[in-house]
RNA sequence: GCCUCCGUAGCUCAGGGGUAGAGCGCUCCCUUGGUAAGGGCGAGGUCAUGAGUUCAAAUCUCAUCGGAGGCUCCA
């Protein structure tokens, strides 16, 4: 009888031993292939949650697997430690951000250790330390010197609730992405990074193996559109209005212009008569938030400025309006309105009774399209009309120059000097300064307004500790004279850097966190970069993941990687493109969701038969909307299979069978409804403290052990999808670990074994290795574990049948333990030791897959009649076509199917990678 | 409205032109000195629906229905 599996004892024991023996230290070794596995660093919020485990432990398993396969693996960890929550804690709890952050880090480090991950803690980097932010400042300075960082005036996002400006990427639907509070636009002088210079390169994902959705999101965010810029003269003199259009082929259809209310020229061109109305409208728009302006189906409003512009293509005089449907933040903040071919302009023209002129005649329409008949704008393909020299040009559905009409018009605009080809981006430069305390100082000073960068030897500009944190709309540092006052005429910059800047280069700091001569060591960079596999959440798609790509490209261009490139060349590696992108492969994990769920509440009426209702009418209603006197069933649908639903009626479950012609009413879903649209209890929600459905990993580790939690997270979800939490399912992986423990600690079987049985278990082992390899390769951790469970079941069966002798047992256990080591590192290490193998299993090599050993010898030949399986014959795996056909035709199934007739056709399908061979006989 | 991805056993998920699979759950039986457990047997699926291509479709194509995520006065 063996000793019981006590996860705690062995987990703590091995975590200490691993630390002491430094088996996770990673060092440059030019003789070995490298693998830089990186998982997104946590923000030290105070507690590790299950999402961290879900992101990190599978990443750890994969890093461990790479290591066992012979790669020199770097798998570091650190903390993204600047940011608002620390400052908020300082304000609300009167605790200094340093203290709050550091105590959180201490705590989270312990929690991270309890995962049993192979983090190399010697490489830990914490972004709020002077040793770290010194280099954030240094990069800022380099950016400035190379024209990438600049100070400029722009309309920026201002958050009232946070009392700071924010980058566009941090504003979602007009709200601050962190607090959900509305932001307003303000004209302010701020620091920017010129990310727009890199827009086109950032659209190129050629060398990246990244998830498609992330690439799409970044592409959408950058929002490249091709078109033309055209300048419209106004009648007030030297104030032309620049517009950008993607549809220069509709220029002749422009019957008015619209400026955003915030546009600079509004004050200049408005006539005396219209001034009062215009000012009132501008005022009204200013108090509205972005959110209100973006509401869908909003009535188009606007006012006439009294001014007119001249359309350069036909010298027509057209009125200039202002309206809030034109955004100052996109393009030039002004548009030429073409109501016939743009839906927004169409709605505005109808609302304001402005003329509409058709200039694209739909191709398939016989009669000329008349403006007065239009119910909506026509934005499809057609022939240009009413457009002078351009008449007859074909406008297709294509965008940019791919559309012949657009190409022709652009050429003509350029030839006549009326306009030019232009590319517009939705992306704006990255606003990098913040009016907050808890961030890296910006190493700039102002001498009578002239910007100077702090000298390298004076870096870092240290963040002072004794400041008052109350947000006032100005950085707390502006009240701290010892900080900002350099001398009588020189004043220090008091804004701080966006924390996203600090996290844009942390992967470089891990290379040499203690280096005080450079942000990173050239040889380390030459060896480890780029990151081979990056794992983390998809919520960073257009923030962190775009910023870090931009950052890397800037560093490359300003020569920060030159020394590393030189080392690479010297070591015989090709630096070409090595520093173009920070992370080659990216994989996003899904989200672990809470277990909460709710189904539709329904009213069912019909007749009763054998204890269940046969319903001819089912209506979805609110949970409290039972009509008085209703005598059918009312309850929540807790389950549905096909047309049978189970209703929860105040705790009692009732069965309802919905008749095929039953009337189904679901108010939320328009049109005729059907059974499949009825929702049963599957509404799942995100975990959140307010819903009270958070899962605490510490408690889980306490209850089941870290290995079981790791395996549960990897086994019970498709990692890239995530899913609902169901703690009950932890029994699966727990049972697996338990069984392996027993098989291992029971010791070698005292039986002779059976050669056929041993051969069979060896074959299954190698089939398992293949599946586990593929699972880890493809981040399909669930299949990798399921396969090992299957193997365990087979092994258990074979042992029970006394088929396995001691030698085979030992060899199988040796490989089995190595297979499970990446997933359950502690129990694997313990069993490895108990079976007398050399420390450590994590330094052992990965079991080699042998296709020959995995091959089946006997297989079932499937006999299909007209494609339907009708029988099987036991045959050798490598059966030849002739022999297979012969056997199949002679089989009883074939004889029955043919009924004496000759087959019309026979098809032989050889068995390949595990599938059985087949013969299809067409009768 | 547009873009991506997805619908396979009660649940969570593999597979993916050629016999429908895993874990958990469930039924029944055994064990009750491995015990908030263990062992064994078993049941469960028209692979969302409809049409097409094919000797053969869960798999490929199209449509419909349903789900998840993203974008959206983007000129």
Describe this structure in words.
The protein is of the alpha+beta class and 923 residues long. 33% of the residues lie in helices and 23% in strands. It is built from 28 helices and 38 strands. Strands 10, 11, 12, 13, 14, 15 and 19 form a seven-stranded mixed sheet that branches. Strands 29-30-33-32-31 form a five-stranded mixed beta barrel. It has a four-stranded parallel sheet with strand order 2-1-26-27, covered by helices on one side. Strand 10 (225-234) and strand 11 form a beta hairpin. Helix 1 packs across helix 25, helix 3 packs across helix 4 and helix 20 packs across helix 21 (731-745). The longest helix has 23 residues, at 755-777. It is globular, with a radius of gyration of 35 Å. The two termini are 61 Å apart. The model has no long low-confidence stretch (mean pLDDT 86). The chain binds one RNA strand of 75 nucleotides through helix 7, strand 11, strand 15, helix 11 and helix 21.
Strand content: 15-25%
**Mean pLDDT, as a whole number?**
86
| Helix content percent band | 25-40%
The total of beta strands comes to 38
Keywords for this entry:
5-stranded mixed barrel, 923 residues, 7-stranded mixed β-sheet, RNA-binding, 23% strand, alpha+beta
Write the layout of secondary structure elements.
Elements: H1 7-21, E1 34-39, H2 50-68, E2 72-74, E3 78-79, H3 84-93, H4 97-113, E4 125-126, H5 130-145, E5 149-159, E6 164-166, E7 171-172, E8 175-176, E9 183-193, H6 199-202, H7 212-222, E10 225-234, E11 237-245, E12 256-259, H8 266-269, H9 275-287, H10 290-294, E13 302-311, E14 316-323, E15 334-337, H11 343-352, E16 360-362, E17 382-384, E18 394-395, H12 404-416, E19 419-424, E20 430-431, E21 433-434, E22 444-447, E23 450-453, H13 481-484, E24 490-492, E25 496-497, H14 499-502, H15 506-509, H16 522-528, E26 531-537, H17 544-557, H18 562-570, E27 583-589, E28 591-593, E29 601-609, E30 612-621, E31 633-641, E32 644-649, E33 652-665, H19 697-704, H20 706-715, E34 722-724, H21 731-745, H22 755-777, H23 781-800, H24 806-820, H25 825-834, H26 851-854, E35 858-865, E36 868-876, H27 881-890, H28 892-898, E37 905-909, E38 918-922
Parallel strand pairs: 1-2, 1-26, 3-4, 12-14, 26-27, 28-34, 30-33, 35-38
Antiparallel strand pairs: 5-6, 5-9, 7-8, 9-20, 10-11, 10-13, 10-19, 12-15, 13-14, 16-17, 17-18, 21-25, 22-23, 22-24, 29-30, 29-31, 31-32, 32-33, 35-36, 37-38
Helix pairs in contact: 1-25, 3-4, 16-18, 19-20, 20-21, 21-23, 22-23, 22-24, 24-25
The protein binds one RNA strand of 75 nucleotides through helix 7, strand 11, strand 15, helix 11 and helix 21.
